[in-house]
Predict the structure.
Amino acid sequence: MSTPKISVRNLYKIFGDAPAAALEQARAGMHKPELLEQHNHVLGLRDINVDMQDGEITVIMGLSGSGKSTLIRHLNRLIEPTAGEVVVDGENIMEYGPARLRRMRRHTMSMVFQKFALLPHRTVLENVATPLIVEGARRRDYEAEAVKWLDRVGLDGQGEQYPHQLSGGMQQRVGIARALTSNSDIMLMDEAFSALDPLIRTDMQDLLLELQRELQKTIVFITHDLDEALKLADHLVILKDGEVVQQGEPQHILMNPSDPYIVDFIADINRARVLRARTVMTRTDISPPEGAVEIAGTATLEEVITLGGGDADLVFRVMERGRQTGVLAMRDVLTALVGTEPAGAA
Amino acid sequence: MATYDWIFDTLGLRDWCDGSDAAAPMSMADLMSRTGSAPDASVWETPFPSMDALNDACASFPQSRDLTRGLERGFLDIKDSLSVVLDPLTQPLSWALEGALWLFQATPWFVMIPVLALIVALVSRSARLTGFILLAFGGLAFINYYDYAMQTLAIIAVCALIAVILGVPIGIAMSRSDRLERVMIPVLDMLQTLPPFVYLIPLIFLFSVTEPKLYGIAVILYAIVPVVRLTNLGIRLVDPEVIEAADAFGMTDRQKLFGVQIPLALPNIMAGVNQTIMMSLAMVVIASMVSAPGLGVLVLRGIRNLELGVGLIAGLGIVLLAVILDRSTKAALARVNAAQKQ
Ligand SMILES: Nc1ncnc2c1ncn2[C@@H]1O[C@H](COP(=O)(O)OP(=O)(O)OP(=O)(O)O)[C@@H](O)[C@H]1O
Ligand SMILES: [Mg+2]
């Protein structure tokens, strides 16, 4: 695996009057409820270690209050940590002075907010051009670039409107265009789609995936919605009470939840729709008996079942890039659809 | 025998009390009580152990008027050195007021009234309001109150302008420092609750009554409060997520202040300016007692000479001015609000 684009190391954040003392307790093994009860300090984050790879979407998921926003705000230092470091492109950003930090925020990272956070007194075009205006660009310098991104997110010709004249979905498109205008490698998105209604939300997810195929940015995406997480994530990090309970490839987490908390979390999803043939198959290149149907590794189990037409004894050949990578028996498909106990809990 | 003799006796201070018998000044009350024979004191009439009551028991104990006199002496003692600093500092205010008074009165009415109407038309973009302004000033001029109205207007223009120029930066500073806010809020509360007459008193001692800055300072002190408060409040109320966005895109503090915080706080700041102007008007009237010219002088004349008609008409003129100022600034405020409703 290549060196990560962003690397969070041993990050602690404690809210309160005397975080240093509480930090010792947290380091000694104290968790969020006890720390609040005994020391009256809120444990925001506890010993976070996450690597985020270049060109991937890392999704951070957790319930309300689990520390997602706190974590993402450490990546551009909107919040200062109590201990630990964040390494971006090989540099520990905690060592940056104010000027260097501003340069990083202007060129390396951009951010999309849950409630859009557009400037209400500026036009849509000016909002989109914010990263360039901050750098001192005049209208004739930024106009072409801003219009380009505005068109790209599907808001052609809306540049002279004011944000309050647009719908929520359109405003968030402006938010995304604003982040793209900075041409930064990294995009931070804090519950960017949570304020939108479900249909628009799906549209926005599709837009994001489409942009991502084209631009290959490093995206850190926060959500409390598992379906959204599974749709977008290359790497999934699950937070609970300020701690990482499990992280990894989403399909792997679905098949091997390490904690009852995660089992609860994934209990309600439609597994047939998110699990893929590749995840459930038995890895082998020995051909199954004649007549086995070929399917793609990325096919969802739902597609596999439809293809099987109710025959429980079928065996499929799973193909990737023209080669067989494994076989998939319908029996395994059915087993995978029933949830898994947490590893070690059985 | 005074009620509280025993305190000084038990404390063993009797010698100290009798030591400086002659020093205690004689008050009218003292004289009165000397002449009549001391009545039998019942328990019901036990006086509060106030300074004066204790002084009865012990002549060396200071009386309450020593306190007020001490304050007065102290003030008079520092007055000269205070004047050395304050005089040159406030002199420009006198010039500004004199200049404005001259300008507003020297400009002929057929220039002044259209100019005022034009200004109102520009800030409010309302033909009705502009028409009303023309009518109001025409009416005031017709009954020969034009000059007085102009004097009042000139003083308000200068004082409100200075209050805003000073008040907005103070409000901004307060919004950025919780410590400064904690210090300033009691000061603002005091300025707002002190009866205006009270801070005229030290000002009269500091400056001569013939100087315009005397009433200028009084007006500014009184009127500055709302613009400071509302600037502070407005900036603190700016959506924190928008501030976060400004930070996340690498704005400097300066860009954030002028590009985000002030524009978003503008409706509140403008509301503060409106209040400041209205309070200037209120204070200008009171400041007539210390030589501020304008409609207030007529009100004062109405009271002093019992000229009922003069006082009432001048009062009506003040109301008219108030309505004019209020409507014009509110119209400007409404335009700001319309430009950035969320
Ligand atoms: N400034 C602060 N002072 C004190 N506690 C804070 C502060 N900011 C966050 N917290 C606490 O830290 C914890 C994590 O908060 P955070 O906002 O990161 O949660 P979240 O996962 O983003 O939740 P949500 O889904 O509601 O946005 C919460 O318990 C919260 O109360
Ligand atoms: Mg959050």
Q: What stands out?
A: The pocket of magnesium ion (ligand 2) is lined by residues A 68-69, 191 (CB under 6 Å).
